[in-house]
Structures are given as C-alpha cells and as structure tokens.
Design goal:
By secondary structure, the protein is of the alpha+beta class. The longest helix has 18 residues.
Amino acid sequence: MGKSGIKYYTIEEYLAFERTSQSKHELYKGEIFDMAGASFNHNQIQMNFTVEVRNYLKGKPCNVFGSDLRIHVPANGLFTYPDAIIICGNPQLMDEAFDTVLNPSVIVEILSPATQRYDRGEKFMLYRSIPSLQEYILIDSESFSIEHYRRNNDNTWLLQEWKERTDTFTIITIGLPLLVEKLYNGVRI
C-alpha cells in the first residue's frame, strides 16, 4: 500500500488479476482502473469501423482488432484496451499468453463525455511512446467529429479534423479512405 492507502500492483499481479476478471481494467503506474461500459453509439461506431476496415484488409498484411485485445506500452508501463487497433505485419506479443500486443500501427478511441479529456490528453501522450504507432484516430460518439493524428518523419504529429457527414478521411497506414457517414451509420446523433 502506498501512503494514500492505494494498493500498487506489479505487472505480474495485474496480469494474473486481469486474466481471470470478468471486466476490463487499465494499469498505469501500479494502479488498476476500471474501464467503463460503452453506450449504444460507442458500440455502433466501433462495429462500423472494424467491419469497414476488416473488409478492406482481407488478404493484406494488416489486421484490425476490437477492444478485447490489450496493448502494453513498455516505455511508460500502460496496459489498456483501445476501442480498435490495426497491426501491420506480425503482432509482437508480450508473453506466451498471446493476449497483450506491443506493436499497434493505428489506435482508435471512441470519445465519450467521460473519457474524451483522457483520450485526447494523457492517454495520447502515453501512446506516443509506442515506436510502431503511426496514426491515432479519435471518433466522437455524440457528434460528427473525427480527429486524426499522424506521425511525421521527424516524430511530430499532424492533426486533421473532419466534422461533416460527407467528409472522407484516409487511414494512411493501410491506404483506406473512409466516409464519415459510414462510421456513423445507425448512430443516434
């Protein structure tokens, strides 16, 4: 226990706990955090995104995964479950349990009122420590809004935004143009 009465966990303790848990948790700086459930809109957007990307990637050397695949960022100790990730090439797995990946090429988070500040701020800062990460995409669950960050050759990040249903943006890593309206199909805005 720390001075504040908070129990701190080792990576081994966290993984033992998480691998038997019925719900998902994040680990950062030794603390375990519950991950909140998701709204109808959140789930619909996640499904729309993964279906569009999965269909496009058939037969290609990249793959898309939903929110049940955990990632680990060794540079800062974060363990978390992004809403979607794209991995190009062979997945680098943390250990023989094959449930924690180290090399996402693209990370997608779907924003909710409860998570948007964290996803845009500290979480993005932590994600930037992943050498393989090339793109970070934030999709708002309550309005037509997509924020797309792309890593430049000099390790800076370029932000582009789309706010119209008829806008199209491209996931550069895989060369997929996506119509904003398709991601929001069935979503109640």
